Amino acid sequence: MNSHAEIQRLLPAYCGGDLEPAERKLVEQHLAACPSCRAELANLQTALRLIRSTPEVDPPPWMAARIMARIREQQTEKQSWLRRMFFPLHIKLPLEVMALLVVCVGGFYLSRTVETNLEQAARQQLQEPPAQQAPSPAQLAARGEKTKPTAAKQPRSTAPPSAIPQPAPRGEGTPFGTAPPTPATPAPAPYAPAPPAYRDQQGDKAEPMKASPAGEPYNRALEQAPEVKSKSSRSVERRVDAATPAPAGRAAGVPAPPALPQSTVRLSVDDTSAAPAMIREAVLRSGGDILEEHEMRGQRLKVRIPAARQNELLQRLERLGRITERPVTPPPGTQLLELTVQW
Amino acid sequence: MMRAQHAETADDSTLAQACKRGDLAAFELLVQRHQRMLFNIAFRMTGVYEDACDIVQDSFIAAWQKIGEFRGESKLSTWLTAIVINHSRNRRQQTRQRERREAYSLDAPLPAGDGEKLPDPPSPSPSALEQMEEAELRLFLTRCIDTLTAEFREVLVLRDMRDLSYDEVAEALKLREGTVKSRLFRAREAVKDCLKKAVSI
């Protein structure tokens, strides 16, 4: 420990005051006797003094501002990046969920509304019969004409075969089946066109009910709720009255009295694309209402007009194209009539 | 963005907490408070003023980005010092790689040190350094410090130039205190030897 080399190794620590008192004492004792170590220590002390007295340098005055500017710049970049990354998560996702909810809730209420409408329609029909009890022969004939093609169409309906056995319990179980004065149950095989004379009001209603072109959903609902059964079958029957299947909501929503005389106007037009709008206008100008529009086929319009103005409408239609089939002249005393315009 | 008014006297850890909540004003205070110290460390580590500017800027930006990692176990200044030291090391490596790539460029000046062959023998008279002009000595000192390897320069700059405590140096460099001391003493010795050689030309 006392050797010259070892003391020399301690000098860098000694010159900086980094030695323990015991070691310091050893070094000092050696220094007193060793000129070369004293020289080395002097050099070390000079070096250390220089190092320790190294002057401070001023940072450029713009440094802090520059740093903050760069950080703020990054911050905004980061925010826009975050916005891009997280908006789909935070905003779009809820939007999707909301859209789904709206669809679900909307669908639910729509189905509820349709049901309510069906119910109202059922009540209306229960109240209406007295007013409709004496259809004129012409009306019956017209209706017979109309229903025949309908019956022929029925096999094409969406009703599954399983729906066929259902009519019997349905007809019996509903108040509707028992209320009218005439025999309520027509032949169990109502798919054959019924003779016009057979078609009193009850038959008119009960028959299509069994031939129900209603879709599967209806049938399911019917099995669960007998009351709904009668309602929906009535709406179905109204559709049959209208000679063509129409969306259930619309059929149920239009409170059309079923006993109006019906007939058909066939029109040959040149411009089929403009025809619907022009025909509609002709009907409205003749004081008529549009009952149904068959958008799917696009060439058929069911309207209701005052019987007195049928000729007026025909004149207007003649201006649009050639009339290939003229409607039946309404029986005297008819107020309103239903007309199917085809083109 | 939270913006609170901070007193100039608010301590570093309080400001650091505010920074963690995104308070830029608090960070600005820290920048103003520590930029000089950090700049001098960076300057003594690289020896190049412009490099030191870049290092300090980059270090503060890095500090802002990872302020969440500051646990408060050490002083904030020590934490910042560690960041500056790391950036200085990286910068020096990059510079050296660039110099190596440009070594064969005809336009480039000859690398320093090639021309000056320092004689080996020790100085003839004791305390020869004391007889040198101060300004000249400083010039030599700068060169000598530049010849030190990074690990020696780091301890010398932090402890003897910037007067950090051994604790702080050990913390900033992630070294044990014993290692810091042994490196420091060897660095002093190396600087002394380098100066002696320079003087005795």
What is the CA-atom radius of gyration of chain B, in angstroms?
20 Å
Report strand % of chain B: under 5%
Largest interface, Cβ cutoff 8 Å = A-B, 37 and 46 residues
Q: In percent terms, what proportion of residues of chain A is strand?
A: 5-15%
Uncertain parts of chain B: 108-126
Q: State Rg of chain A.
A: 48 Å
Give the fraction of residues assigned to helices of chain A. Answer: 55-70%
Shape designation of chain A: rod-shaped
> Assembly state here?
heterodimer
SSE order of chain B: HHHHHHHH
Number of strands of chain A: 5
The number of helices of chain B is: 8
The sequence of SSEs of chain A as H and E is HHHHHHHHHHHEHEEHEE
**Principal-axes shape call of chain B:** elongated
Commentary on this structure:
The complex is a heterodimer of chains A (343) and B (201). In chain A, a hairpin with a 6-residue loop joins strand 2 and strand 3 (300-306). In chain A, strands 2-3-5-1-4 form a five-stranded mixed β-sheet. The model of chain A is unreliable at 146-190, 192-219 and 225-253 (pLDDT under 50). Chain A has 13 helices and five strands. Chain A has helices at 4-15, 21-33, 35-52, 63-127, 137-153, 167-173, 175-178, 201-210, 216-224, 226-241, 248-253, 275-285, 310-320; strands at 262-269, 289-293, 300-306, 321-325, 336-342. With 343 residues, chain A is an alpha+beta fold. Chain B is mainly α and 201 residues long. Chain B has eight helices and no strands. In chain B, helix 7 crosses helix 8. The longest helix of chain B has 26 residues, at 76-101. In chain B, 37% of the residues are buried. Mean pLDDT of chain B is 84; it is low at 108-126. Chain A binds chain B through residues 9, 11-13, 15-16, 18, 35-36, 38-40, 42-44, 46-48, 50-52, 54, 56-60, 63-64, 66-68, 70-72, 74-75, and chain B through 1, 24, 27-28, 31-32, 35-36, 39-40, 43-44, 49, 52-53, 56-57, 60-61, 64-65, 123, 125-130, 137-138, 141, 145, 156, 160-161, 163, 181, 184-186, 188-189, 191-192, 195-196.
